[in-house]
Predict the structure.
Amino acid sequence: MTPTTVVDIGRQAVEITLLISAPLFIAALATGLIVSIFQAATQINEATLSFVPKLVVVFITLIIAGPWMITLMTDYIQRLYGAIPNLIG
């Protein structure tokens, strides 16, 4: 196993991690922005007002994007496990 192979496997792992986490982060970011604008417009400074909508939106996003996320993760793991004989031999 060469250093190039190790770096490539690490790069692929980081890419998969970013792809899997992106929908949840984007949903939480958009919800936080909308709630912050609402709080600024109404001058309501309640901490739970920003937390609860984010939690609900992230949960809904997880339900919607969950199958895609699991498929992406299992495909990567299957490719990685399938490549083990070539990596050590």
In short: Residues 26 and 58 are 9 Å apart (CA to CA).
